[in-house]
Amino acid sequence: MKKWTLSLLTLVLVLVLAACGSNNAANNGAEGNTAGNTSAAEGNAANAGNQTAAEPVKLVVGATVPHADILKFIAPKLKEEGVELEVKEFTDYVQPNVQLYEKELDANYFQHQPYLDEQNAQNGFDLVSVVGVHVEPFGAYSNKYKSTEEIPDGAKVAIPNDPTNGGRALLLLQKQGLIKLKDEAGITATQKDIVENPKNLKIIETDAAMLPRQLAEVDLALINTNYALEAKLNPTKDALFIEDKESPYTNILVARPDNKDSEAIQKLAKALTSDEVRTFINDTYQGALVPVF
């Protein structure tokens, strides 16, 4: 009886020890799997972080010609710096600011500061200048005459119908002695500010983009350089007269207060004012555009 009892106790002890060993092995296996899974998760997270860091930041920038061509020129350089540049081209001066304000664009590049100021005031925008890039000397063109002296009495003269460029055109006409404005008239001058018009010029206001098409119908048209270039006019050769290089109407890169200081916008600003862009502008436009940096 005692031998049988001792055998039974021995068997129970063996079974208990076997069970403990199995549990320990299972626990160790689970811990190993957990450690392995944790390590893999950390690795995946690190890889994901590396992939995110490598992804380029996309900037959508609105522009007219020739600004769009300058942006396309610097796009490869920006891509190397982690900025993917998408250039959205416009043929008007209104939508680039509207779409920037509504955050459909990240920036725009087509206008000078007086025009931006006027648009901000008129529309309640708060768009801001980031950097000045170039001046586009404003010129007067004619299919009929080769000099200012040939312009006849009663000549039809077309100018832009927006306040700042219209005023700019009137100031240029005054500089040529064709009209005289009130002493206090400035960039926002209108026809009401004309106090002398010795040749009785008939001044017609029209949309800036339409001015090149008006050349056949008028005696003289004052055209923004970007629209002149689109119409295959060479400002330095075809204009009867043109603003000099001291023109204060610097074309600027424009953004919003919430993104103007972002790394991507600042990289764009730096690229637009690089030595490479200065050379590109001078070689490509031969004085029709003048770098200001």
TrEMBL record:
Membrane topology, from the record: Lipid-anchor
Q: Which UniProt keywords apply?
A: Lipoprotein, Membrane, Palmitate, Signal
Q: Which residues form the signal peptide?
A: 1-25
What is the protein's given name? Answer: Lipoprotein
Q: Would you identify the family this protein belongs to, as annotated?
A: Belongs to the nlpA lipoprotein family.
Organism superkingdom:
Bacteria
Tell me the PROSITE patterns matching this sequence.
PROKAR_LIPOPROTEIN
Supply the InterPro entries for this chain: Lipoprotein_NlpA
The record's listing under Pfam families reads: Lipoprotein_9 (PF03180)
Annotated compartments: Membrane
